[in-house]
TrEMBL record:
Pfam families: PD40. Transmembrane segments: none annotated. Belongs to the TolB family. InterPro entries: 6-blade_b-propeller_TolB-like, WD40. SUPFAM superfamilies: DPP6 N-terminal domain-like. This is WD40-like Beta Propeller Repeat. It comes from Salegentibacter salegens.
Length: 510
C-alpha cells in the first residue's frame, strides 16, 4: 500500500510539472490535434481552461467556445493559439462573435516574447461589440490606439521592424490603419490568436476564418530575379470565405478554372500545370516547344481552345501568341507574326475567331485584336499610356480592360471594334487591373494595387485587394485582402456558376 501511495504521489507530482499546454492534449494523437497553421495552444494567466478550441480542416476555420464558468479574475486569463516566428510578418484573419451579447469578450492577434503572464506584447483586438484597438504593453507602460470605425470583422497585424501596423475593416470595405511602436519585443516572438472572456457570464462562440501568417519579401528583394512561395486559393465571392488548395515553394501564377470546375490551370517557370480539385494531383500540360510561357494564358468560352503567350527564341525572346489543344499539344499554332513586337494574350472572342491582346507596337502598349485565320491585326486603343488586361464579356458585346490614361490605373470598357470607350472605376486610392467578367455576365472581379505603386506597374508581393462590382459599373466591394499582385489574378478565373474565383497569394517559405 505504501508503494501504491508513493507511486500515485509521484505520478501527480510529475504531471503537475508538465506545462499546461502539454496537459491539454495528453492522450491525443496528432491527427486529433490539428491546429492548422499554428503550433500549440495554452491558457495564459489562469489555471483552468476558459473555453474549448476546434479546428475544421475542411473549412480551414477555427471556433472557440467560451466556458460558462470562465472566471477572468484579476489575472485576465486568455486562450492563446500561437506559433513561433521571426523578423517581419503579416497576420490576417476574419472573425465573428456568435451568441455572445453583453459579456464584452474580445479576440484578435497577440505578439509576445514569452508564454508567461508577464510579457512585452502587441495586441490587435476586437470586442464582441465590434470596436477595435491596437495596444502595446512594454516595461515603460501601456500604449493604445483606437480604430475609428464602429464595426470590425477583418484584422491584419503587421510587424515592420519595431513598428506594428493594425489594419482593420468591416468585410467589404478597405482597411483603416493605425500604428504603434514597441522596441521591447525580440526578433524571435510568438504570434497568434487570442480569445478572452469579458465577464463571468461569458458564453458564446468566436468563428475565425481566412487565417493567414505571411512572411513578406524583404526591402532588398529583386523582382523577377527572386520569388516567394505561392498559395493556390479559391474564394466564395458572396461570403468572402477562402480555402488554400495547394501551396508550393515555386512561383505559381494566373489560375484558370476549367473542365466543369474540376481543374485549375496555372503557370510556373514557363510551363503550364493542371491541378485536379478532387484528387489534388498536379500534372504538367504538354506544350511542345513552348516552354517559356508567361502568365497570359486564356481558354475560349467553350474551352475548345487554349491560347498561350510564349517567349519565342526565334524572335529575340519576344512574347508571341499561340493557340493549342487544351488537353496538350506538341505543336501549338503561332498566330502573331515575328518582328511585330511583344504580344500578351488576354482574351478569346465568344465565336473563337479572334484573340485580343496587349501589343507593343509603334513604341507603346495598346490593345489589339487579331483574326485567327488571316492573322490580321486591328488596333483597338490608341493612347500614349498603358492599355492592358482586355477581356470579352460572355455575350461578346463589350471588351473590358484597364488603362492609366487619366493618371491612375482604372477599369474601362469598349465595343469590340474599339468604339465607345468608357471609364468604370474612378477611386484615386486604388490602381485597378485585370477585369474578369463572371460567366453570368453580372459581375466584374479585379485586383486593386495600393496608390503608392506606379500606375503602369503591377509588381509581385504587394498588399492588394480583390474587389467586385456590377458589370455596368458602381461602387466596388472588397472580397479579399491579399498579399500578392503580379500573377494573382491575371487571367479569367471564375467558376462556371459565377460563385467562386481562383487566385494566387504569396509568402516566403519556412
Amino acid at each position: 500500500m505504501k508503494k501504491l501511495i508513493f507511486g500515485s504521489f509521484l505520478l501527480v507530482f510529475l504531471i503537475s510539472g508538465i506545462p499546461y499546454e502539454t496537459q491539454i492534449h495528453k492522450g491525443f494523437d496528432s491527427a486529433q490535434w490539428d491546429l492548422g497553421v499554428f503550433e500549440n495552444e495554452v491558457t495564459i494567466g489562469g489555471t483552468n481552461p476558459i473555453g474549448e478550441l476546434d479546428y475544421n480542416s475542411d473549412l480551414q476555420e477555427y471556433s472557440f467556445v467560451f466556458s460558462q464558468d470562465a472566471e477572468p479574475g484579476g489575472s485576465n486569463p486568455f486562450h492563446y493559439l500561437y506559433k513561433s516566428i521571426q523578423g517581419n510578418f503579416i497576420l490576417r484573419t476574419q472573425l465573428s462573435f456568435e451568441d455572445d451579447a453583453g459579456s464584452e469578450s474580445n479576440a484578435g492577434w497577440i505578439i509576445r516574447d514569452n508564454l508567461g503572464p508577464k510579457s512585452a506584447e502587441v495586441i490587435a483586438q476586437v470586442k464582441n461589440s465590434g470596436t477595435a484597438s491596437l495596444r502595446s504593453n512594454t516595461i515603460e507602460g501601456l500604449k493604445s490606439e483606437e480604430v475609428p470605425i464602429s464595426q470590425v470583422s477583418v484584422l491584419q497585424l503587421e510587424r515592420r521592424g519595431n513598428v506594428y501596423y493594425f489594419s482593420s475593416a468591416e468585410w467589404g470595405d478597405p482597411f483603416t490603419t493605425v500604428k504603434i511602436e514597441n522596441e521591447n519585443l525580440r526578433s524571435e516572438v510568438f504570434a497568434g490568436l487570442f480569445f478572452k472572456p469579458g465577464s463571468k457570464e461569458a458564453s458564446g462562440k468566436v468563428i475565425v476564418s481566412n487565417v493567414r501568417i505571411i512572411k513578406p519579401a524583404g526591402p532588398d528583394f529583386e523582382q523577377y530575379q527572386e520569388y516567394l512561395g505561392s498559395n493556390l486559393e479559391i474564394l466564395n465571392v458572396e461570403t468572402g470565405k477562402r480555402k488554400i488548395l495547394y501551396n508550393s515553394a515555386h512561383s505559381i501564377q494566373a489560375p484558370n478554372w476549367v473542365n466543369k470546375d474540376k481543374d485549375l490551370i496555372y503557370n510556373s517557370n514557363g510551363y503550364l500545370y493542371r491541378y485536379d480539385l478532387k484528387s489534388e494531383k498536379v500534372e504538367q500540360i504538354e506544350t511542345g516547344f513552348a516552354t517559356n510561357n508567361n502568365n497570359d494564358h486564356v481558354f475560349s468560352f467553350d474551352e475548345s481552345i487554349l491560347g498561350i503567350s510564349h517567349h519565342n527564341h526565334e524572335d529575340d525572346g519576344a512574347s508571341s501568341l499561340y493557340i493549342m489543344d487544351p488537353a496538350g499539344d506538341t505543336l501549338p499554332q503561332k498566330i502573331t507574326r515575328d518582328g511585330v513586337g511583344a504580344s500578351y494574350l488576354h482574351g478569346i472572342s465568344p465565336d473563337n475567331k479572334r484573340l485580343i491582346f496587349t501589343g507593343d507596337r509603334k513604341g507603346k502598349m495598346d490593345i489589339y485584336s487579331i483574326d485567327i485565320d488571316t492573322k490580321k491585326e486591328t488596333q483597338l486603343t490608341d493612347t500614349e499610356y498603358l492599355d492592358d488586361g482586355s477581356e470579352y464579356s460572355p455575350d461578346g458585346k463589350y471588351i473590358y480592360f484597364n488603362s492609366n490614361r487619366n493618371g491612375k490605373m482604372h477599369l474601362w470598357r469598349m465595343k469590340p471594334d474599339g468604339s465607345e470607350q468608357e471609364q468604370l472605376t474612378f477611386d484615386p486610392k486604388h490602381n485597378d487591373w485585370f477585369p474578369h467578367v463572371s460567366p453570368d455576365g453580372k459581375w466584374i472581379a479585379f485586383i486593386s494595387f495600393p496608390p503608392e505603386i506606379d500606375s503602369g506597374d503591377h509588381p509581385f508581393y504587394q498588399r492588394c485587394l480583390l474587389r467586385l462590382m456590377p458589370v455596368d459599373g458602381g461602387e466596388p466591394k472588397v472580397i479579399a485582402y491579399i498579399y500578392g499582385g503580379q500573377g494573382s489574378i491575371n487571367v479569367p478565373s471564375w467558376s462556371s456558376d459565377s460563385k467562386h474565383i481562383a487566385f494566387v497569394t504569396n509568402t516566403a517559405c519556412n
